[in-house]
Amino acid sequence: MAEMTVELVAVERRLWSGAATLVSAQTTEGEIGIMPGHEPVLGQLIEGGTVSITSVDGERVVAAVHGGFLSVTATTVTILAESADMAQDIDVDAAKAVLAENSEDLEAIAVAKGQLRAVERA
């Protein structure tokens, strides 16, 4: 089975690194799916988006990402996010509370929406 090296990195830390067979990410141009051998591409991640990675052993890794870039070569995918949270680490109640507050903080709302999408996709 063909595989590629994937790194999911946020400004403050590396969240996941390993071999994968599929990466899916939400970019400003739409959702993109990356498989081994994909043409090189550089994409801008949306604010409050998600990234899904299927590892070579079939594990599905899902993260909420807020801004950043996706860089693809024939053998590697690097996801550089401004901030990111693994789906299993997200506090769903806290994300829902941010949305319920009707806050004018559009960035906080986008992050919370992305976190809830990541939990749903996990």
Automatic annotation (TrEMBL):
Domain ATP synthase F1 complex delta/epsilon subunit N-terminal as annotated: residue spans: 4-84
InterPro entries cross-referenced by the UniProt entry: ATP_synth_F1_dsu/esu, ATP_synth_F1_dsu/esu_N, ATPsynth_dsu/esu_N
Main location: membrane
SUPFAM superfamilies for the chain: Epsilon subunit of F1F0-ATP synthase N-terminal domain (SSF51344)
This protein's record includes keyword Translocase: no
Membrane topology: Peripheral membrane protein
Keyword Phosphoprotein tagged: no
Keywords for this protein: ATP synthesis, Cell membrane, CF(1), Hydrogen ion transport, Ion transport, Membrane, Transport
Source organism, top-level taxon: Bacteria
Localization, UniProt: Cell membrane
Pfam name, any one: ATP-synt_DE_N
Free-text function comment from the UniProt entry: Produces ATP from ADP in the presence of a proton gradient across the membrane.
NCBIfam families, alphabetized: ATP_synt_epsi, PRK00571.2-5, PRK13442.1
Record text on subunit structure and interactions: F-type ATPases have 2 components, CF(1) - the catalytic core - and CF(0) - the membrane proton channel. CF(1) has five subunits: alpha(3), beta(3), gamma(1), delta(1), epsilon(1). CF(0) has three main subunits: a, b and c.
Family: Belongs to the ATPase epsilon chain family.
Protein name as it appears in the record: ATP synthase epsilon chain
Organism name: Rhodococcus kronopolitis
